[in-house]
């Protein structure tokens, strides 16, 4: 055990104990954060526009500040980009985290001097909690890889701007720099496939002990390693013993990732976003991610079925209930107010407060009133894949709406790239339809009432999703394929990649 591993032990226990104490005082911490945020925002342009100088409590805040998504924040963001101070938070942000995929084009999410610690410290705390619980500090002595976006930053309105993962790369502690891979030059490569080749070249002979990234892109790295070396990842890296992942639900990817490694290893799940680092796995063998209640973010929760209502119910932490699907709303020291991040969560514990991410507000199917969500399709597919000994590379679901020029009824269409296909695709589809009817009572009613035909499965070429993401310029990095669409845009594109045989 080298010095880094040795020194990590007492620090890990110190931080883990601090996290545990704070988890017991979450409601009080949230109240304190709200008061601090309110005190600052009163002196900003946003605060003046919303009369927050006269607001003293949460009830008053809810009346003054409506729920917004990014598009409704654009006028304020534009003022910040023009170099104006004290718009959403005091002064100017130190960064813009740039993301894509909204109707207004690229998103520019402010990161302030006060909010940057939320991103950096939470990632650190997740690893230290893992160390304290398991006693595994050895990985700190080996090579660590963070599959991320380019750390190169541009200037927008004088503010350093880039992908969140690239920004965070600039804040990796000095004591980990010598362990970190890939090199800065390789990390700056924009083309994902070229970058992947360079990462494999730099890492295949190293003592990799920790690998971190979004699961589908970690899988691509593993596949490339195996095709290049002819070895399982676990054989190539015998000391690789912990994987850190987030961005999508891990469960649909877990089996294939472990198969590529050749053995099970410990995993640590995170819930980060450009808007904030919201939760992390603090215990190995318990479900749920610990909500980050003392890190500059005041959380609100709206029952998911009310999110599009004109006057939805807004709840603070002590008002939430177990098992209810909530839209996650944040107010933060990054200058985001009543901000709908687009994710839905469900509490699996309230002592401490732990959540699971259940989907995206905009990723659902309700073409026929069924409102199917990501949690339901993932649960149904995992169940049936296990029953049929199939394994899935990637999938998405869309509605097919029958028209006058088509025969038959409408149905849900599943586009699935199989790593290992079921022996009988028709039986697989029938079992999947039954599982979905058990998951969603409205879908069950539509099938019973013969409004919908049973779902149909379209098997895709194994690399269909890679080809699709490449075709739209979103291969690699932090980009994710939506599990659900309420339109046919993705489905029609994937129709070009139907497998002729499986």
Description:
The protein is an alpha/beta fold. It contains 18 helices and 20 strands. It has two domains: 1-361, 3-Layer(aba) Sandwich (Rossmann fold); 364-497, GMP Synthetase, Chain A, domain 3 (2-Layer Sandwich), CATH 3.30.300. The protein has an eleven-stranded mixed β-sheet with strand order 6-3-7-8-9-10-11-15-14-13-12, with helices on both faces. The termini are far apart.
Write the layout of secondary structure elements.
Layout: H1 3-24, H2 26-41, H3 45-49, H4 58-64, H5 70-81, E1 95-102, E2 105-111, H6 116-134, E3 143-146, E4 154-156, E5 159-162, H7 164-169, H8 174-177, E6 180-181, H9 184-187, H10 192-203, E7 208-213, H11 215-229, H12 233-236, E8 242-246, H13 251-261, E9 266-273, E10 276-280, E11 289-291, E12 297-303, E13 325-332, E14 339-350, E15 353-360, E16 364-365, E17 372-373, H14 374-388, E18 391-400, E19 411-420, H15 425-439, H16 441-448, E20 456-460, H17 464-471, H18 489-494
Parallel strand pairs: 1-5, 3-6, 3-7, 7-8, 8-9, 19-20
Antiparallel strand pairs: 1-2, 4-5, 9-10, 10-11, 11-15, 12-13, 13-14, 14-15, 16-17, 18-19
């Amino acid at each position: 055990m080298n010095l880094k591993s040795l020194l990590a032990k007492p620090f890990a226990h110190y931080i883990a104990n601090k996290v545990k104490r704070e988890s017991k005082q979450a409601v009080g911490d949230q109240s304190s954060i709200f008061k601090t945020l309110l005190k600052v925002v009163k002196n900003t342009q946003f605060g003046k526009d919303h009369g927050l100088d006269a607001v003293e409590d949460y009830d008053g805040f809810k009346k003054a500040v409506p729920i917004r998504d990014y598009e409704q924040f654009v006028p304020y963001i534009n003022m910040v980009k023009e170099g104006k101070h004290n718009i959403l938070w005091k002064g100017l942000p130190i960064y813009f985290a740039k993301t894509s995929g909204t109707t207004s084009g690229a998103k520019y999410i402010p990161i302030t001097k006060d909010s940057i610690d939320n991103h950096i410290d939470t990632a650190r705390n997740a690893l230290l909690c893992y160390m304290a619980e398991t006693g595994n500090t050895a990985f700190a002595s080996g090579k660590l890889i963070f599959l991320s976006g380019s750390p190169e930053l541009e200037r927008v309105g004088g503010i350093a701007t880039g992908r969140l993962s690239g920004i965070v790369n600039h804040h990796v502690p000095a004591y980990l720099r010598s362990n970190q891979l890939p090199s800065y030059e390789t990390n700056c490569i924009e083309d994902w496939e070229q970058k992947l080749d360079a990462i494999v070249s730099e890492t295949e002979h190293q003592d990799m002990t920790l690998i971190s990234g979004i699961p589908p892109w970690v899988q691509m790295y593993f596949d490339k390693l195996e095709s290049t070396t002819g070895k399982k990842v676990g054989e190539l890296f015998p000391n690789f013993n912990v994987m850190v992942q987030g961005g999508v639900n891990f469960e649909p990817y877990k089996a294939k990732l472990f198969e590529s490694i050749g053995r099970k290893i410990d995993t640590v799940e995170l819930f980060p976003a450009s808007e904030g680092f919201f939760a992390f796995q603090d215990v190995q063998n318990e479900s749920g991610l610990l909500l980050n209640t003392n890190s500059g973010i005041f959380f609100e929760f709206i029952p998911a079925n009310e999110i599009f209502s004109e006057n939805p119910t807004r709840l603070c932490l002590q008002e939430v209930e177990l098992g209810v699907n909530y839209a996650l709303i944040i107010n933060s020291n990054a200058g985001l107010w009543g901000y709908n991040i687009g994710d839905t969560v469900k509490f699996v514990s309230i002592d401490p407060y732990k959540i699971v991410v259940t989907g995206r507000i905009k990723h659902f199917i309700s073409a026929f009133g069924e409102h199917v969500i990501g949690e339901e399709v993932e649960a149904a597919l995992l169940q049936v894949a296990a029953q049929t000994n199939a394994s899935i590379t990637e999938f998405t679901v869309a509605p097919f709406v029958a028209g006058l020029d088509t025969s038959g009824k409408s149905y849900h269409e599943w586009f699935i790239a199989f790593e290992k296909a079921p022996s009988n695709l028709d039986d697989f589809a029938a079992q999947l339809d039954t599982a979905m009817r058990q998951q969603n009572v409205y879908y069950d009613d539509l099938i019973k009432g013969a409004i919908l035909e049973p779902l149909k499965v379209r098997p895709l070429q194994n690399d269909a999703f890679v080809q699709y993401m490449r075709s739209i310029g979103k291969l690699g990095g932090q980009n994710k394929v939506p599990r659900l669409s309420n339109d046919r845009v993705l489905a029609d594109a994937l129709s070009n990649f139907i497998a002729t045989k499986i």
